[in-house]
Amino acid sequence: MGLSDKSVMELEDVALKEKKKSKKEQLPWDVVQISRHPNRPILQDYLSRVFDNFIEFHGDRFFSDDKAMIGGFARIGNQKVMLIGHNKGKNTVENIERNFGMAKPDGYRKALRLMKLAERFNVPIVTFIDTPGAFPGLEAEERGQAEAIAKNLTEMASIEVPIVCLVIGEGGSGGALGIGVGDRILMLSNSIYSVISPEGCASILWRDAKFAPDAAAAMNITAKALHHHGVIDEIIKEPGEGAHSDYETTARDVKEAIIKNLKSLSRLSNEELIQKRFEKYSGIGKFSI
Amino acid sequence: MAWYTEPTVEKKTTQKKLWVKCKKCNSHIYESEWIENLNVCPNCNYHGSITSYERINLIFDENSFVELFDNISPKDSLKFNDLKGSYKDKYETAIKKTGISESVVTGYGKINGIPAVVAVMDFRFLGGSLGSGTGEKILQASNYAYDNNLPYIVFSASGGARMQEGALSLMQMAKTCAGVARLNKKNIPYISVLTNPTTGGVSASFAMMGDVNIAEPGALIAFAGRRVIEQTIGEKLPDDFQTSEYLQDHGFVDSIVDRKDMKNYLSNILSYYNR
Ligand SMILES: [Zn+2]
Q1: Lowest CB count within 10 Å: A137, B66, B177, B232, which one?
Q2: Which of B126, B73, B80 is closest to A288 using CA atoms?
Q3: Cβ-defined contact of B178 to A177 (cutoff 8 Å)
């Protein structure tokens, strides 16, 4: 007890300032930046660290093989799963080939085909969500982007195998939700999930995209806020400065969380699974009565 | 005509002879003629917007409609504020202005004697946006159809998901589709009628999922906005892009039906429901 009252107060002051500083780092707009960090791990990084024996399946059987969305059988620990996810790239060449992870209807239809395949084989489904949004282009509209997403939402409500969805980066609107209906929705702590991009919201409601930080805060797009509002079930805490600072720890925690959730879902019968999924979605939303 | 019974507007039309300018062909039409023609341009067949109750009066047999779930209204659970103020103020104004409590009116009734459950969106209420209350009503109505083995009809008129509710509004897409999935499982018919406009999150959920998809002529039906697409691809889009006719050509709409024929068209389809 050698410290005088004054120095104790000073120490507390420093501690308080530090706390405020770290709190400041948690602004929603900062989380947006981390979720879009150029070195943030993408699906391909998890593919090698979380899964084994990935057998990729190609094509939607209608039109094309959309490289913005990939899927196939894989093993995670001792568990066999159907892995489906948005496929962002890390450099310009990859991103052009994979369309920055923005799937066309072909991508959503491929995803649905593979989910049906999983149901046929009685294998649970794991989806990795990481997209700025569904591709907004002429051909996408022409081939029914709206129909493709709507169909996935409808079918995923009643697919009779467990579905675990994980947002690893950007959960961009309907393009994210198109593979995002499941029994457990997980988010990495610095990922975002949003009805419209902060820039898009700002340009409509603030008449200027530069208000994106305000829109990001107003829309409650962080994992913490979404957990509070009952949109997601679980947050996987990222190490250090964020997932980009430590791939191995992030991958280990992602793997653990997926295995844990698959295990708890495996106890349910198909009827219970579908009933609980219906009740889960019936319960999302806040309104006045 | 009996279909149009909203008192405030009727009063306005009897007091003054007002002109309506058609948004498509720019011709001027007497408001009385416009209303007589169900808010459709007698010149170019442009289908102007109508309110939920006007639609209901057009479709259902007289005195057969019973409203359900009208106790549900929005909630500002995110305490959302933008430059123009709070979400709460916006929906309270909308409730006052429209006399309805959410962007959709739900209930059941008879269409040429055939019972059906219906949800009718109202574009006047925050652009027909899909909020939690909207999603709840659309799901509750589909549950009512499910429990009573009645066909379900949804009239869409919406700019998409309601940004002021964040991801809660996004999730209403999944929620409403979960209701459609249950109807599918039980083989209960679900008819979607797409009216101007049906865009964004509404087009990418229940509106596109009809066993039969019907559209009014010339309606804007789109996932992404024209401006966003033009920016993405760097070129101008064709004039008829994202219209009812365009969607029918591309295989997403079964039929395009004029407003005046909608009731008989629906009852004709429903008459094939043989269960
Ligand atoms: Zn006209």
Answers
A1: B66
A2: B73
A3: no
Q: CB-based contacts of B153: which residues, under 8 Å, 6+ apart?
A: B116, B117, B118, B119, B190, B191, B192, B193, B266
Distance CA B265, CA B216 (A): 12
- Helical (H) or strand (E) element with B20: strand B19-21
**Cross-chain Cβ contact A194/B167 below 8 Å:** yes
* Cα–Cα distance for residue pair A262/A172, rounded to 1 Å: 25
CB contact residues (below 8 A), chain A span 111-170, against chain B: 134-138, 140-147, 149-151, 153-158
ipTM of the complex, rounded to two decimals = 0.93
Which tokens in the block code for residue A8? 């104790």
What is the pTM assigned to this prediction?
0.92
- Quick: pLDDT tens for A88-106: 999 999 999 999 999 999 9
Mode of pairing for the β-strands spanning B66-68 and B104-111: antiparallel
Q: Pull the structure tokens for residue A130.
A: 């990481």
Decide if A186 contacts A233 (C-beta within 8 A).
yes
CA distance linking residue B188 with residue B182, whole number of Å: 9
Tell which residue, B163, B89, B170, has the closest CA to residue B127.
B163
Instruction: State which CATH number among 3.90.226.10, 1.10.238.10, 3.30.420.40, 3.20.20.10 fits the domain covering B49-273.
Output: 3.90.226.10
* Phi and psi, residue A37, nearest 5°: -60, 135
What number of residues does chain B have? 275
Which secondary-structure segment (H or E) carries B214?
strand B212-215
Domain boundaries, chain B: 17-46, 49-273
Cβ atoms B173, B181 nearer than 8 A: no
Burial A252-276 (b: 16+ CB within 10 A, else e): ebbbebbbebbeebeeeeeeebbee
CB contact A92 to B (< 8 Å)? no
Residues of chain A with confidence (pLDDT) below 70: 1-25
Question: What pLDDT does B11 receive?
Answer: 37
- Domains for chain A: give ranges and CATH numbers: 37-196+221-280 (3.90.226.10)
Taking alpha carbons only, the member of B178, B173, B168, B136 closest to residue A231 is: B168
Confidence band of B231 (pLDDT split at 50, 70, 90): confident
> For residues B163 and B131, what is the distance between their CA atoms, to the nearest angstrom?
8
CA B21 to chain centre: 22
d(CA A28, CA A215): 9
Q: Do B166 and A229 touch (CB under 8 A)?
A: yes
Distance A189 CA to ligand 1 centre (A): 53
CA distance A46 to A42: 7
